[in-house]
């Protein structure tokens, strides 16, 4: 597949994935089309060598497994996360001011607030309903047309707006939804959208997890299309590329793709990287394949490797002083190995050496990021997964600008670079 085809598939995935629940549904659909069988954690599992299966938890985290036909000796693990910073609706979201129905919001994750003003916003997430027969059901909602906006205050009324004034999310960021509306109108709108998308009638709304999203579609940017601009590149780009690598692999090796929710808020949940999801699945798989017991599982994990994929900070042409002079990754310069002596990233010299060798094998350029010594450092699911499982891990990612903005920017060439090296990882016979 050409680089342009790969990028177009990524753009389509981004368009259809405004929330973690939608991203997992999209990934599950592709896995099933490729012959993967869905497992239910509530049911007994029957697994055999050579099978390809997947399982979800909370409908917002997903694990896909490719089991080898030979005895399972090692796993090539790729990790990513499905969530992105954004605005989530409060349970009692409807509020009125100056004759307008507005939405009460919470801040999810460490987001940049300013870019959310004056954007065309849609609404998406999951809604739980009760049918007339008493049956409860959770359904996905994706209102992909502009239905809300957070208007800025005119410069004439706030002369300090360009002087670094703080933004109060509680009082200044309530989106405007409907003129003259109130609480019943929000419920009416949600029911109308559910009827439009799912044909649901005479339902009772019980609860929801909904958020706002930018309706501007992802796009290629630059005279030669060198850039990709989109919401949620962090970290749906990694979810997409990890899935592409799994589906493109030769099927001979044991491979795990795990995409966890809640990374942006610390990963401490039942389906987050700090939770038991991946460990639960691996123990059940090993038991099914006759490799149960602590010793067998520990031996398997220590023979395995995890590549945690989460985007990296590219060198910004307007803020070059924000990078260490020797560690400023370039867009379209290849995947970035992320290093931190204080274990905010899980990379060590052994796992980095393996990845550099994979890049050599795949003929892919490779870069390194280390934050300035006088600045703090973010983190990923890498150190958390390494801590929970004990699996040797490294952190890598495609470079990008404007991380945690409503619209982020990455390099179009880096999508293919990362896909090639992760495919080589899935096919690698010897992991040492």
Automatic annotation (TrEMBL):
CDD domains on file: M18_DAP (cd05658)
EC identifiers of the protein: 3.4.11.-
Superkingdom classification of source: Bacteria
Gene Ontology molecular functions: aminopeptidase activity; metallopeptidase activity; zinc ion binding
Family as reported in the entry's similarity comment: Belongs to the peptidase M18 family.
UniProt KW keywords: Aminopeptidase, Hydrolase, Metal-binding, Metalloprotease, Protease, Zinc
Signal sequence interval, chain numbering: none
Biological process according to GO: proteolysis
The protein's required cofactors: Zn(2+)
UniProt name for this protein: M18 family aminopeptidase
Any one Gene Ontology cellular component term annotated for this protein: cytoplasm
Pfam families per UniProt: Peptidase_M18 (PF02127)
């Amino acid at each position: 597949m050409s680089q342009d085809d790969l990028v177009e598939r990524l753009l389509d995935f981004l368009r259809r994935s405004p929330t973690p629940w939608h991203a997992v549904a999209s990934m599950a659909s592709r896995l099933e089309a490729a012959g993967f069988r869905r497992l239910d954690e509530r049911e007994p599992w029957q697994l055999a060598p050579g099978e390809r299966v997947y399982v979800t938890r909370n409908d917002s985290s997903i694990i896909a497994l490719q089991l080898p036909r030979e005895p399972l000796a090692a796993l090539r693990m790729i990790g990513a996360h499905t969530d992105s910073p954004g605005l989530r609706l409060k349970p009692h979201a409807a509020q009125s001011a100056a004759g307008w129905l507005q939405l009460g919001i919470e801040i999810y994750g460490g987001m940049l607030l300013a870019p959310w003003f004056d954007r065309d916003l849609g609404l998406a997430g999951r809604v739980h309903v009760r049918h007339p027969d008493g049956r409860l059901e959770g359904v996905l909602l994706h209102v992909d047309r502009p239905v809300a906006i957070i208007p800025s205050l005119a410069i004439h009324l706030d002369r300090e707006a360009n002087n670094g004034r703080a933004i109060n999310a509680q009082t200044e960021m309530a989106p405007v939804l409907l003129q003259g509306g109130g609480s019943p109108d929000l419920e009416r709108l949600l029911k109308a959208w559910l009827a439009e998308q799912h044909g649901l009638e005479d339902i009772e709304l019980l609860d929801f997890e909904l958020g706002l999203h930018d309706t501007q579609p992802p796009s290629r940017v630059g005279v030669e299309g060198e850039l990709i601009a989109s919401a949620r590149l962090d970290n749906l780009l990694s979810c997409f590329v990890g899935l592409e690598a799994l589906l493109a692999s030769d099927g001979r090796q044991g491979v795990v793709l795990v995409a966890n929710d809640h990374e942006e808020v610390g990963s401490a949940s039942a389906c987050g990287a700090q939770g038991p999801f991946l460990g639960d699945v691996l123990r059940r798989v090993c038991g099914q394949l006759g490799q149960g017991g602590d010793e067998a599982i520990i031996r398997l994990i220590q023979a395995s490797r995890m590549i945690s994929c989460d985007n990296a900070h590219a060198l910004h042409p307007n803020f070059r002083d924000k990078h260490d002079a020797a560690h400023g990754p370039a867009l379209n310069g290849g995947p970035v190995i992320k290093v931190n002596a204080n274990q905010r990233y899980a990379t060590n010299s052994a796992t980095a050496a393996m990845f550099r060798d994979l890049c050599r094998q795949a003929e892919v350029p490779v870069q390194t990021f280390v934050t300035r010594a006088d600045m703090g450092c973010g983190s990923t699911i890498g150190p958390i997964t390494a801590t929970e499982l004990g699996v040797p891990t490294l952190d890598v990612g495609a470079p990008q600008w404007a991380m945690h903005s409503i619209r982020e920017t990455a390099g179009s060439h880096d999508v293919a670079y990362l896909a090639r090296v992760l495919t080589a990882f899935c096919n690698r016979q010897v992991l040492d």
